[in-house]
Amino acid sequence: MPHRFNRFLLLSGVVMSLTAHAQSIKPGLWEMNQKMGGNAEMDQAMVQMQKQMAGMSAAQRKQMEDMLAKQGMSMPTAGAGGGMALKVCVTPEMAAKQEMPMQTEGDCTTRITSRSASALKMSFVCKNPPSSGEGTYTFSGDTAYTMKMVMNSTHQGKPQTTTLDGQGKWLASSCGSVKPVK
C-alpha cells in the first residue's frame, strides 16, 4: 500500500500545485476527486488500497489522518468511479496569488505549455520518484475544474504509464477542521 498511496499523493500534489495558474480561484474548502488508471494492475492496486484504507485500525487511521493534516489535507475517501477524494484548504492569500495547496514530496518542476481563460496545459518532471508527464485542466469559473493527466515512470525496472482523471470543486468558504498547507 505505501508505494501506491505515495504515487497517489505525488500525483495529487502535482494536480494541486497547478490548478490555479489559469485563473483566479475561490478561497475555502475544496474537494478533489481523482482516479488513477492505466492498466489492469494499477486499477487492481487502487481497489486494494481502498480496501486496506477501509480496514485500518483506529490507531492506523489516526496516524494517516495526522500525517495528511500536517500537509493540509484530509484523509482520502472513496470517490466516484473507484477513485479517491480528498479535501484541501485554499486560503485567501493562496487564492490572491492564484495558488493551490502543494504537496512537497516528489521534488517536481512544472511548465505551463499553454493557457487560456478556461484551460491550462502543462508538463511536469519529478525527481523523487523519477517521473514525467503532462496534463490538461478545464475550468468552470472559479469554483470547479476537470483534468486529465498522463504520468510516465518506472516501477520495478519497467516503464509504466499512469493516467489520472479528476475534478475539483469548491465546497465552502470555511475550511472547518482542514488546515491550510504550511
Give a written overview of the molecule:
The structure is a single chain. The chain is built from four helices and eight strands, in the order αβααββαβββββ. The protein has 182 residues and is α+β, with helices and mostly antiparallel strands. The chain has one domain (2-172). Strands 2-3-1-8-7-6-5-4 form an eight-stranded antiparallel β-sheet. The longest helix has 17 residues, at 2-18. It is globular, with a radius of gyration of 16 Å. 34% of the residues are buried. Residues 1-8 and 16-22 have low confidence and may be disordered.
Short description:
With 182 residues, the chain is an alpha+beta fold. Helices cover 27% and strands 40% of the residues. It has one domain (2-172).
Topology:
Blueprint: H1 2-18, E1 28-37, H2 40-54, H3 58-70, E2 77-78, E3 84-90, H4 92-96, E4 108-115, E5 119-127, E6 130-139, E7 144-155, E8 158-172
What composes the largest sheet? 8 strands, antiparallel
Whole-number total of structural domains = 1
User: How does the helix and strand content classify structurally?
Assistant: alpha+beta
Query: Strand share of the residues?
Result: 35-45%
| Rg, alpha carbons | 16 Å
The quaternary organization reads as: single chain
What is the average per-residue confidence, as pLDDT, rounded to a whole number?
75
Number of separate strands: 8
Q: Compute the number of helices.
A: 4
The H/E string reads HEHHEEHEEEEE
Q: Residue share in helices?
A: 25-40%
- Apparent shape: globular
Which characteristics define this entry?
single chain, 27% helix, alpha+beta, 4 helices, 182 residues, 8 strands
